[in-house]
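User: Can you fold this complex?
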Amino acid sequence: MERWGFFARLKKKLRFLYRLFLRKDKLKIGIYGPPNAGKTTLANRILRDWVGEIIGTPSEIPHETRRVKLREGVKIQVDGKSITIDVVDTPGIAAKVDFHDFLKYGLSEEEAKRRAKEATEGVIEAIKWLDDLDGILLVMDATEDPYTQVNVTIVGNIEARKLPLIIVANKIDLPTASPARIKAAFPQHQVVPVSALKGINIDALYKAMAEKFG
Amino acid sequence: MVMEVNLISKEKLSKMGSMEKIRMILDSVKEGKIVVLETGLTPEEEAKLIEVTMLEIDHQNFVGIELESYPQKEKSFLSRILGKRQGRMTIIGPANKLKTLEKREDLIRALIT
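Assistant: Here's the predicted assembly.
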């Protein structure tokens, strides 16, 4: 097990050096976060702004995205800088999936159980994708407490992989949103407040992406 | 209601491999026990624990875990060179029995029902 750990660490270090010296023309950027943070809404916003399409349908029911979705070759141009990214929209990461939680949204027990099963598979897929990415947009709901275990675990894994990270403090159009709370919880990382739904401050995010990932 | 709480020492954890720790945690949690790890898990181990948990959710008796730990401390120069990360105190329990009330950088309040 220790030997496995050594090789895993070595592989990660080599991947970091590869990223450092051999810049790719196209970067895979993963959109991560807990369920209902607005990952698909953000992915749709990015795609609508730059390629005029969407990747999925957001829903108030948690775990709407249960498979990783990929849109390749999205070119973002800001202030003379240009990056081409593959947008990877991932299922929300959670440590528990209870089908009873879906019943209150009017799903039948059969539908709720199927959704729960697919959601567990989606969480696994999202975690596995971390090894294939060049950068992360971590979406947090700015109206919620950011100090959750899922956020702490995702940030820890991104730091361990030395991946460039931007935290997107989403839903700033809502009155209870507090991006400052997210900044205070993760002071070591860049936090960009946006409303993916309304497009508020989205240009600042594109600028940050061009600088951080480009 | 009687609940069993297992406090696992740093010494015991240091002798265990990652999968060994994850297996021990999940076996205990699935039996309805609360597990407290003195040194916790690394972020990679936490992600692996979530992965294995997802595989074992049966949608009847086991719906997942509640996991709470403090964030990583800044790494020392030596640990940066060796590339080793160590977790901090962590509490793990069945999602339907352990509920986090409050979590801050230096305090975790939880309810066991």
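Chain B has a mean pLDDT of 88. The helical segments of chain B are 10-14, 18-30, 43-56, 77-82.
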